[in-house]
Amino acid sequence: MDGNLLGSLLPLIVLFAIFYFLIIKPQQKQAQEHKDMMASLQKGDTIVISGGVVVEIKKIEEEFYIVKNIDGSEMKIAKDYIAAKLDK
Questions:
Q1: 10 Å Cβ neighbour count for 65?
Q2: From edge to edge, which strands make up the β-sheet containing 46-49?
Q3: What are residue 50's phi and psi, to 5 degrees?
Q4: pLDDT-derived band of residue 49, with 50, 70 and 90 as boundaries?
Q5: Residue 57, number of CB atoms within 10 A of its CB
Q6: Do residues 38 and 52 touch, judged by C-beta distance below 8 A?
Q7: Where are the domains of the chain?
Q8: Which of 1, 36, 55, 56 is most buried (CB neighbours < 10 A)?
Q9: How far, in Å, CA of 67 to CA of 42, rounded?
């Protein structure tokens, strides 16, 4: 009985292991890298917001960034919409 139970559960265990290493683990790593990037942002950094607009950080607030567009205009964006930091 135990051998039959183990034999029937083994494919599910293998499937979960494959799912974990191909989906969950890389997603956790990407989330951690984004969190680290967000923590390292400073005034003067160039960033890309999720709409694809490249802006420069002018001021960091609790929940928002005050950023400057290429034309010199300023806008306030929520921290949740930062997609990436551009290296200079």
A1: 23
A2: 74-78, 64-68, 54-60, 46-49, 82-86
A3: -60, -15
A4: very high
A5: 19
A6: no
A7: 1-40, 42-88
A8: 55
A9: 11
* Residue 74 confidence class, pLDDT cut points 50, 70, 90: very high
Residue carrying the six token digits 């009985």: 1
For tokens 């034309």, name the residue.
71
φ/ψ (deg, to 5) at 22: -95, -25
Tell me what the mean pLDDT of segment 46-69 comes to.
95
pTM of full prediction above 0.90: no
Reported residue count of the chain is: 88
* Sequence-distant (≥ 6) Cβ neighbours of residue 46 within 8 angstroms: 54, 55, 56, 57, 85, 86, 88
Four-way CATH pick for 42-88: 2.60.120.200, 1.10.530.10, 3.40.190.10, 2.30.30.140: 2.30.30.140
